[in-house]
Amino acid sequence: MEHTQQNSAAQECPDCHALAADLAAHKQWHSRVVHDLAVAVEKEVDRRTRTP
């Protein structure tokens, strides 16, 4: 039975603690996810507070 070994080059993201082989790319992805969530929340708040 084969065992999967963790890549020793993987680094932990300081924001979400995920292990990433390419920390710079992960941080870029993480920033995009946070941005997209913020935009979605802003749109939902605007939608809910708009007077009919």
Word description of this protein:
This protein has 52 residues and is mostly helical. The protein has one domain. It is 52% helix and 8% strand. It contains one helix and two strands. It has a two-stranded antiparallel ribbon with strand order 1-2. Strand 1 and strand 2 form a beta hairpin. The mean pLDDT is 86.
List the defining traits of the structure above:
two-stranded antiparallel ribbon; 52% helix; C2H2-type domain-containing protein; rod-shaped; 2 strands; mainly alpha; 52 residues; single chain
The largest pleated sheet is described as: 2 strands, antiparallel
- Topology as a string of helices (H) and strands (E): EEH
What is the overall number of helices?
1
What would you call the shape? rod-shaped
Calculate the terminal CA-CA distance, rounded to whole Å: 63 Å
> What would the average pLDDT be, to the nearest integer?
86
Going across the major beta sheet, what is the strand order? 1-2
| Overall number of structural domains | 1
Q: Helix coverage percent of residues?
A: 40-55%
Query: Based on DSSP secondary structure assignment, what is the total number of beta strands?
Result: 2
Strand content: 5-15%
Low-confidence runs: none
Which value, in Å, is the CA radius of gyration? 18 Å
Structural class: mainly alpha
